Amino acid sequence: MRARTLLLATLLALLQGAGARADVVTLTNGRTVSGTIVSEDEQQVVVKTPDGRVTLPRRLIESIARQGKGETLLAMARERANAGAHEDAERLYEQAAADPDPAVARRAREELAAVRARREQARAHTPAPSTPMPLPPEAQGEPLEGQTLQDDLDRARHALEKGDAARARRLLENLVAASPEDAALRYLLGRACELARADGPAREAYQAALGPAFRRDGRPTAWLGELARRSVAGDALTPDSPGVGPAWRRAESPRFAIYHPFDRVEPWFTEEPEAALRDVLERLKVQERELKLSGRIQVVIYGTADDYQRAEHMTLAGGHAQELRAPDGRLKMIRTYPERTLYRRTYRHEVAHVVLADIAPGLPGWANEGAATFTEPLRSRAVLRQAVVGRQRAGQLPELLAFMRGEVPRGATLEDVRAYYGQAAVLFEALVQLCDDSPRKALNACRRIGREGPERGLPSAGLSRTELQQAFDRIAADRSVPPDEQ
């Protein structure tokens, strides 16, 4: 920023030394380059501009206009405004507004007022990022666009959301200079550079966000970026963390990054989570555009069930989904291990949790598990239905109202866990049937039941407790298998 200001001052001095003359070069593509022509011959023209010397081949030049200093200042101000360098543009407009030519001065004042009005309007209408991220209090520097550095941070994050890599990078480079120790800013700068296809600067930013241990790390840029995102989202990375040590490998698909310890994988390895996502969206009748995906969903596949249980402190589970709050949105993760139902059942279940977090936040626990199980193949749900029927016959199945009030624990044995998930799945499917076979209406009813309790939530959702119990019993006893699952 200081170098650019010095360059601008140098050009203004050159203009003043040149008296009332300066130059505007019009190119054959319609673009103009304003400044001072410092040399020219039959092959090329060299123009001094606020960004430095520009060498233009004669074959690309349509015409050259030798203008007065005020006209040139106006042209340069417009170029700087179009490039997003608003402070430079305003200084050039102010210089042009002092021109002795009244027409030039009037246009400069009018355009300066319009530029300032547009900036104020942009400040007022730039949406706040979905997750707040305050700057550290010790951040010191001059804002480029906003009234404060915090304003610039909000705009940089919004630019990232909209895919405006150039604007995000410019703002974030200034913010990193103002607070060089902030890992989150370094990560966001890496995102902007990666979005702009600047691989080298992106790697440097991610490595700085991760710390000295990653300074010479040779992993691909996307891998470093995902580790940096986990780190700044609060996942304390150690040499034993998934994806960090030398035993870990990475595979990717359009929406997933899969970390695993296997020496080689077949193509279906990356196709399965994508297929699971398609199945879940179809089953829940959800459009992909409704999802709030920021970066790939990170999947960690441990080598064995023991590795998973030891690292994640989870028992009686095939996997689990989680969300972390990252500076650029919610980081979605799935952690699991290979077993015979991973690709048929576990992937669908955990991907469903990722989808439900976006389309139906705030679901009660039983509804979250019931809706996720609802997306599994019927054969896996049939096993759970058998557990429900067994508990019904033994008189041990919890009463539906108590279940919906959250009074029933998940259980500490495999039989208890199957009964819990079975009751949740059958209950959700019963709600879907009573809600005109609409999973979305059933999810809305579940959220209402969670907020108001089943005694009030069921009637307010237009549902009858008696009809719900009848639908539940009918589904639990159903042994049919659709033709596509035979």
Structure description:
The radius of gyration is 30 Å and the shape is elongated. The N and C termini lie far apart (67 Å). Helix content is 53%, strand content 14%. Strands 4-3-2-1-5 form a five-stranded antiparallel sheet. It has a five-stranded mixed sheet with strand order 6-7-8-10-9, sandwiched between helices. Mean pLDDT is 88; it is low at 1-20. The chain has helices at 2-17, 69-82, 86-97, 102-125, 149-162, 165-178, 183-195, 199-210, 221-232, 268-284, 305-312, 342-359, 365-374, 378-393, 400-404, 414-434, 439-452, 454-460, 465-476; strands spanning 21-27, 32-40, 44-49, 52-57, 61-68, 249-252, 256-260, 297-301, 319-326, 329-336. Helix 8 (199-210) runs parallel beside helix 9 (221-232). It is an alpha+beta fold. It folds into four domains: 2-125, Roll (SH3 type barrels), CATH 2.30.30; 149-231, Alpha Horseshoe (Serine Threonine Protein Phosphatase 5, Tetratricopeptide repeat), CATH 1.25.40; 233-355, Collagenase ColT, N-terminal domain (Glutaredoxin, 3-Layer(aba) Sandwich); 360-486, no CATH class. The longest helix has 24 residues, at 102-125.
Largest sheet, described in full? Answer: 5 strands, antiparallel
> Which residues sit in consecutive blocks of at least 5 with pLDDT less than 50?
1-20
Number of helices: 19
Name the overall outline: elongated
Distance between the termini: 67 Å
Radius of gyration: 30 Å
Strand order of the largest sheet: 4-3-2-1-5
**Secondary-structure element sequence?**
HEEEEEHHHHHHHHEEHEHEEHHHHHHHH
- Counting helices, strands and paired strands, the structural category is alpha+beta
Q: Determine the fraction of residues in helical runs and give it as a percent range.
A: 40-55%
Strand content is 5-15%
Overall number of domains: 4
In round numbers, the mean pLDDT is 88
